[in-house]
Design goal:
With 218 residues, the protein is an alpha/beta fold. The chain has 6 helices and 14 strands. The strands form 4 sheets. Strands 1, 4, 5, 8, 9, 10, 11 and 12 form an 8-stranded mixed sheet that branches. The protein has a two-stranded antiparallel ribbon with strand order 2-3. Strands 6-7 form a two-stranded antiparallel ribbon. A hairpin with a 5-residue loop joins β13 (193-194) and β14.
Length: 218
């Protein structure tokens, strides 16, 4: 798997990420969502550099301009609910893409043990298309791998791009072992550790709760 670690080079993405991590700025849910959305836009721009393009003619008021546009059928898949702001950022740039939504959550067997469960999937065919699979937090990697398995009945994509804001080194390594070799991971930051509960350290907390509020506990 090819890994594109965007913070290896300084850019404005570092500022947006710093605000996402900041416990004081996190109190503003709208800004939190917008920062994830902006990072999604940045990663969409980076992905656009490796797509296939076709030539097209554009008629202006004064003549014809020769241009290019992406020549791939893109499907953006987001993991509910935390993936929604990231999905919006990607869709802002790939505005003609098809869309897939899937639920994946941690079902806790014990305090430190959990399994990933999928309960909802809405997707077009993925056969021969370019799949962009988005999950803002790549902790253990279990969610992305489980979702990938759940998507297989929808067809085999020609290309796979994974998009995350923050990942933990163990999760990145796990994903690399369980996706095709030609898949590409686009990620803003890679943190080194997971804690005993499988959360990224230093990370930023629960992206879903910070975006949309706390969930009721069953």
């Amino acid at each position: 798997m090819q890994i594109h670690h965007l913070l290896e080079q300084n850019s404005i993405a570092a500022k947006f990420l710093a605000e996402l991590r900041d416990v004081n700025i996190q109190k503003d849910q709208m800004r939190f969502r917008r920062n994830i959305e902006r990072l999604g836009e940045i990663m969409a721009y980076e992905i656009s550099k490796v797509l296939n393009y076709k030539e097209t003619n554009v008629k202006s008021p004064l003549g014809i301009s020769v241009s290019v546009e992406p020549d791939e059928n893109i499907v953006i898949c987001s993991i509910l609910r935390a993936g929604l702001p990231l999905h919006t950022g990607l869709l802002n740039y790939f505005d003609t893409a098809e869309n897939t939504f899937i639920s994946a959550y941690r079902h806790h067997i014990s305090e430190k043990e959990f399994e990933i469960k999928v309960e909802y999937l809405a997707s077009p065919s993925l056969e021969g298309k370019t799949l962009i699979l988005a999950d803002p937090m790549l902790a253990t990697g279990g969610s992305l791998v489980t979702v990938y398995e759940a998507l297989k009945p929808m067809g085999t994509p020609a290309k796979i791009h994974l998009v995350s804001v923050i990942g933990a080194r163990p999760g990145v390594e796990f994903v690399a072992k369980n996706f095709p070799e030609d898949a590409q991971l686009w990620i803003i930051a890679i943190d080194e550790h997971l804690n005993d509960h499988g959360y990224i350290v230093p990370g930023l907390g629960d992206a879903g709760d910070l975006s949309f509020g706390l969930k009721a506990q069953n």
